[in-house]
Design brief:
The protein contains 14 helices and 20 strands. With 434 residues, it is an alpha/beta fold. α3 crosses α4, α3 packs parallel to α6 and α6 crosses α7. It binds guanosine-5'-diphosphate (GDP), 6-O-phosphoryl inosine monophosphate and magnesium ion. The site of 6-O-phosphoryl inosine monophosphate has 24 residues, from α4.
């Protein structure tokens, strides 16, 4: 049995799309378990660039099955747009895309509610992707959400949508946003979309558990990253779903006893989009260099990503939450030009070393990082695909990350393309993925 979870160890955009695409030919199903079209997973194949948001990155490998699990919030219009874009690029989704009948439906009015919440006087904005993700999960937890099975119920959907939208309208009015929501138009638009989606919708937990029983292999693809997880991340500067490994079981309906491993993906440095504390943020020329060389701009919103150094305490924390068996380290090539590379090895607050992740953003904002400065390699690693060909200083850097985090570096990414990857011989990573 080899059903594995691969997910972000930091604040998102670690390179999940590239890795999932690369690994998916070893698996039968690629499964998304949380989030929505706030995710943006980039896959580069030759001259072609794909950014998938709701559809699992595995869709780009021919004959692989892609599952959108019950843990997601789905904007049907965004999903159809994404499917159309893939079809236009010659990637057929028919017969191999499966959408959970229990996933939540995201309405345009969720974006209105989010806008109000982000702009509220006296509240620090989260800096969301403005896709309506948070309010949709709020309605799920409030037990007034609409699920895909409801959307497909021609008779029930109009009344369910009206009731939910009326709730949102009351909120909008209270904040002086008058009737930006046209219920009849939304219902008509969504009912048309429902007919296009109907052939794809099913009980995906049943499908996946039957696949497991037959010995087929599942690859779970995390969206966002552990530090954006609703429970374990830098609350309230998080997304509204369970991005960490535990979320894979609830978000797909596959039991923990069927999971054989968890792989964390981390950049060789750190980035974050949106608000919230970021202890190793580099607000100087080095941060700017990383942004430029790493092309650190949001795949969904185009926002510049905040850049900083590798953060060992953060990695130790996310390794503990997820139980990483192995770590993939991406974007090594981005650091190629640097003469010195700081790595944060400890957190101090008021001069005292702390050994746990602060629970509040106020405390985390007070953290002074303790750095060890590693020598850079100042030679190109772009495209290197063998461990032994890495420059000695890069090997020392990777060994340092491994030793400090106590997680093996099983794979290194040296460029955005599939073949720009080193899979380390003898690693737990190789065992789990081949
Ligand atoms: P995801 O959300 O985790 O899938 O990551 P994104 O796609 O949002 O951002 C990662 C970006 O880095 C994408 O543009 C990738 O093409 C790119 N990328 C991934 N791995 C590497 C790498 O090793 N080197 C370089 N230079 N770029 C990479
Ligand atoms: P992938 O899957 C990076 C961030 C937003 C914001 C916070 C909440 O590509 O790694 P939301 O719209 O989810 O309510 O925003 O979470 N965020 C991401 N940052 N990568 C992502 O996805 C993200 N998805 C959400 O910037 O700070
Ligand atoms: Mg991304």
């Amino acid at each position: 049995m080899s059903n594995i979870i691969i997910l972000g160890a930091q604040w998102g955009d670690e390179g999940k799309g590239k890795l999932v695409d690369l690994l998916s030919h070893q698996f039968d199903y690629v499964v998304r378990y949380q989030g929505g079209h706030n995710a943006g997973h980039t896959i580069i194949i030759g001259e072609k660039k794909f950014v998938v948001r709701l559809i699992p990155s595995g869709i780009l490998q021919p004959n692989k099955k892609a599952v959108i699990g019950n843990g997601l919030v789905i904007d049907p219009i965004a999903l159809l747009e994404e499917a159309d874009q893939l079809m236009a690029a010659g990637i057929d989704v028919a017969g191999r895309l499966f959408i959970s009948n229990r996933a939540q439906v995201l309405l345009p009015s969720h974006r209105v509610v989010e806008k109000i919440s982000e702009a509220r006087k006296g509240k620090t904005p989260i800096g969301t992707t403005s896709r309506g993700i948070g309010p949709c999960y709020e309605d799920k937890a409030g037990r007034r959400g609409i699920r895909m099975a409801d959307l497909l119920d021609r008779e029930a959907f109009p009344a369910l949508a009206e009731a939910l939208i009326e709730d949102q309208r009351i909120k909008a009015r209270a904040y002086g946003v008058e009737d930006a929501i046209d219920t009849a138009a939304i219902v008509a638009l969504y009912q048309t979309a429902a007919e296009k989606l109907r052939p794809f919708v099913c009980d995906t937990a049943k499908l996946l558990n039957a696949a497991v029983a037959k010995g087929e292999k599942l690859l779970f693809e995390g969206a966002q990253g552990t530090m954006l997880d609703l429970d374990h991340g830098t609350y309230p500067f998080v997304t509204s779903s369970s991005a960490s490994a535990g979320g894979a079981c609830t978000g797909a309906g596959v039991p923990p006893t069927k999971i054989s491993g968890v792989i964390g993906i981390s950049k060789t440095y750190t980035t974050r989009v949106g608000g919230g504390p970021f202890p190793t943020e580099a607000l100087d020329a080095a941060g700017e260099l990383i942004r430029k060389r790493g092309n650190e701009f949001g795949a969904v919103t185009g926002r510049p990503r905040r850049c900083g150094w590798f953060d060992v305490p953060l990695l130790r924390y996310t390794a503990a939450i997820n139980g990483f068996d192995s770590m993939v380290v991406t974007k090594l090539d981005v650091l190629d030009e640097l003469a010195e590379i700081p790595v944060c090895t400890g957190y101090r607050i008021d001069g005292v070393l702390i050994d746990e992740m602060p629970a509040t953003f106020r405390e985390l904002a007070k953290v002074e990082p303790v750095y060890t400065v590693m020598p850079g390699w100042q030679t190109s690693t772009r495209g290197i695909s063998e461990w032994s060909k890495l420059p000695p200083a890069a090997l020392r850097y990777l060994a340092f990350l491994e030793e400090q985090t106590a997680v093996e570096v099983g794979c290194v990414s040296t460029g955005p393309e599939r073949n720009e990857t080193i899979r380390r011989a003898g690693s737990r990573f190789l065992q789990l993925t081949s």
